[in-house]
Amino acid sequence: MLTNLKRLGLAACISATGVVGTLIWERLAAENSNETVSGTPIAELKVAVRGVTRKPSQRLIWEPISEGSQLFVGETIRTASDAEASVEFVKSKTRIDLDPDSEIILEEVDGKLELNFLKGNLFVASASSGSDITLKAGDKNIALDGSEVSLTQDQKGKVDVTVLKGGSGLASSSAQIKIVSPQPNDLVYSVAKSGVEIAFEPPPAGYKLILEAGRRRDEMKPLAFTGTPESGKIQAPFKLGRLYWRLTAKPEEAGKPELASAAFRLNILAKTPVVLLKPEKDEVISLADLKAGELPLRWSNPSQLESLQLEVFKGRDFKNPLISETLEEGSVGHLARLTEPGDYNWRVSGRLKGKTEVVVGSLRPFRAVARKDLAIPIVISPRMDDVIPFQTFSERGLDLKWKPVEGAVSYKVTIVNKKSGSSEDREASSPLLRVDNLKAGDYSWSVRAIGPGDEVSKPSAVSTFGLQELMVFAWADGKTEADHRYFTSEPSVDLAWENGPASAVKWRVRLTAEREIASDGAWSLVGTTNMFKGLPHDGTYLAEVEALDAQARVIARAPKRRIAVAAQPLLEAPKFSAALGDEITAANNGSVEVTWDSVPGAAEYIVKYEGRSSSEVRVKETSSVLKRLMPGRYVLTLRSVDPSGRAGPASAPKAVIVPNKSDVKAPKLRRFEVQ
């Protein structure tokens, strides 16, 4: 015991030392990190798609970063397997784009920036010449001076460099096929099913052109294309989004070299107009609810259109312009000043990026009113002409429900006694009112919404319900709980009940699984006092039956019946008579009599034997004679069959031996001739 305590104490000391050391290391790492990033930022993260992280040189912990984050010398930038990043350097405006699973270090050597590319796929674009940045990839050093470069480096350090534009001092590794358009990293607009046109200098005769594309530079696969390669133009079935692509040409004759273009990156967008979001089509705007009389307009720009132009027109057409403004780049919203009620239209148009073509947005109408009228409430429950037993109402009350109205702060419910004509108003703070002090009788009710300025909506449609002291009739067996065992292939139930009042002409029946809400079930109408109904599954159900008169009014109701529904078990297997022994030996004529004990409820039995020959017979008795069995060994089994024709499990097998001295011989073939 003492030894164990010493061991525990030693372990606690070691653990405490580790914790203290970790805290000290983290504090020092944080201080070093702060020192590292305290200088002037050299770049900014312009685009961050999903998981982009960084790690200062003096730390081991990666931290997530988002768009707009400032980057410093000594930091490592990494993208996850589904992430992308775009970094722009402050002075030169050089941009580098990182594909998924890529990593780069921002270093400084002799006062000059050096990008140490460790792995993944990288695209470099320099906005102007004179960029004093060097890209290091493996054993290659590339001076970024107005150039565009695409690189791939695998886990083993193998580097593939393609110079797409400019003079970096490196020749392209695969540029025997010259691409005319689209150029590297172009933004291309695609119309549905038309694809993207690729123009190039055709390879020499005797070569087969192949188009390859993929989301990553190192995962491009062949794609089918249309067009004639000899003309130098083809249509590529590129999907929307950003991808890499290239052309290769394989010689038809052996000995000739394969040709390839550079691997270009392309950004493909759908050629669609600006998508208007708010206000919605035909939306009614309350001028009284606007802050400073300004209406927020919202849209999205999936095609990245430039030079957006906002237009607002008074009226249902574009003849009376009210607002026409050129919007800031990248804007997705604007505050439009409205002062007068009336009908309006608005749209946002823009120019395709890098092109002169303008995509004009469609007009969207809306209406402005001085103060928007409250909507009319819509009644939900109870349903029209629903009849509620007065005893149930006395025990639980009744919930009047309706759909909520936008802008309403309260509601006023009017309940009318249809017999006396008297009415009363009740207030509700939510779209539900519970009533519990009404007398038996028929009622109608409606509801109105009340706004913050005491404005009142028009009343809802009138709904009716009844609180009736209904006559009660019984189920045929007088029970309210029962077990039901079905013989059908699918779950089912048989129901029967008493006639009820003499004026009853029809009955409606509802079966609801106990785990569901009974009031949501559907009623089935029948003209007799019994019903067979299929069910979706086994389980406990609640059965309801109501009697209806000639005017389809509920005049009586049976108590709810709780029914446990399950399949009737199959009959047990018969047992062979004990006198038969472990094995049965047939007579010389190949016959044998088999007997067994009767099974209660069995309508018949199945006798089956298998061996040199096989057969199956059905008998109603508890015995059977098998005749003219060939010599050999047989296996005999029995099964019980219930009145519904369902066969139960097989019995334990019984061996039957037919001796070789049996008189039963195999049949002989008669002589036959082949014509």
Structure explained in plain terms:
- The model is unreliable at 22-26, 28-37 and 169-174 (pLDDT under 50).
- It is built from two helices and 56 strands.
- By secondary structure, it is mainly beta.
Terminal-residue CA separation: 102 Å
Structural class: mainly beta
Mean pLDDT: 84
Number of helices: 2
| CA radius of gyration | 43 Å
Major sheet size, sense and barrel closure:
13 strands, mixed
Overall form: flat
Q: Classify the helix fraction into a percent range.
A: under 10%
The counted number of beta strands is 56
Report strand %. over 45%
> Could you list the spans in which at least 5 consecutive residues all have pLDDT below 50?
22-26, 28-37, 169-174
What's this, in brief?
With 675 residues, the chain is mainly β.
Main traits of this protein?
mainly beta, 675 residues, single chain
What is the fold's blueprint, element by element?
Blueprint: H1 2-36, E1 43-49, E2 52-55, E3 63-64, E4 70-71, E5 76-79, E6 84-89, E7 95-98, E8 103-109, E9 112-125, E10 133-137, E11 140-144, E12 148-153, E13 159-165, E14 179-181, E15 186-190, E16 196-200, E17 207-214, E18 221-223, E19 226-228, E20 233-236, E21 241-251, E22 259-260, E23 264-270, E24 275-278, E25 283-286, E26 294-300, E27 306-314, E28 321-326, E29 333-337, E30 342-351, E31 358-359, E32 364-369, E33 379-381, E34 386-389, H2 390-396, E35 398-402, E36 410-417, E37 423-428, E38 432-435, E39 441-450, E40 463-468, E41 471-472, E42 481-486, E43 492-496, E44 506-513, E45 524-526, E46 530-534, E47 539-548, E48 554-557, E49 561-567, E50 583-585, E51 592-595, E52 604-610, E53 615-619, E54 623-626, E55 632-641, E56 654-658
Parallel strand pairs: 9-10, 15-23, 25-32, 34-40, 41-48, 42-49, 50-56
Antiparallel strand pairs: 1-4, 1-6, 2-3, 2-5, 5-8, 6-7, 7-9, 8-9, 9-12, 10-11, 12-13, 14-16, 16-20, 17-18, 17-21, 19-20, 21-22, 21-23, 24-26, 26-29, 27-28, 27-30, 30-31, 30-32, 33-35, 35-38, 36-37, 36-39, 39-40, 43-46, 44-45, 44-47, 47-48, 47-49, 51-54, 52-53, 52-55, 55-56
